[in-house]
Design a protein that fits this description.
By secondary structure, this protein is α+β, with helices and mostly antiparallel strands. It has helices at residues 28-31, 56-69, 85-92, 109-114, 123-132, 135-138, 163-168, 183-188, 194-204, 232-248, 250-253, and strands at 2-8, 13-16, 34-35, 40-41, 48-53, 74-79, 101-105, 142-143, 146-147, 150-153, 156-162, 207-208, 213-214.
Length: 254
Amino acid sequence: MKKVIVSLLALIMVFSMTGCKKKVTATFAEDLKWDEEKQEYAFEKNAKLKLWTDNDEFAAKVLELWNAKYPDVELTYDNVGSTDIAEKMKLDGPAGLGADVFYIPHNSIVDMRESGLLFQLSEKDEAYIKSTMQDSATAVTLFEDNMYAIPSSVENVAFLYNKQILEALPTLPTVLPLTATNLLEQVENEEIYLEELLAGVAAWGNNFAGTGATIPYLEERFESEGEEQAVAEDKHTILAWQLYDAYHNYFLLT
């Protein structure tokens, strides 16, 4: 039986703005004025904005839409990877060379906020964002209950594993007593070596006494040469790789 686990990964990208020449975190209350008539923030005189992202196609579309709506406010773009932005902002930001808008992994928020590189969003904007997005997305943008970024994307990844392998694991012969819950923990703690488990699979084949589980081979994982069929030893190797996969997905199963 195959089982699917879907987990919400911490791969959320966030949107933020920086006051490049400030040594402490700026706030919207200090620097921005709200235009009630236009229902948007008023631009500073001769305002310019710089965008950092590593997606050229996306940036081109943003520039197109921005220039159509705000032709008097210059927006420029540099290709900078999201994982490089935090360090680059620490170097370029104090000199006034950093970006005003950029995308970063969610786990960069605290560090960049402490470095004085992120604006705190206003209560008005925070309330609007929370009303339109999932709590799981907005939670990672908060620091001490204040919002410093806007979620851009959330990714779901599905993991598949063969449950029969996990049922059979406790019967493999090893030097230590085993239970269904501690076998892979012993591997993690190097009390049992993974090679020993793989050797057990190779020796026992796909019939594990005492479990009633017969683990099917994944034939497609074996690439034979010519028209020769996979021999028993090869099939055991394939089965060992199934166990190896289960071992590396263990943290998802507990």
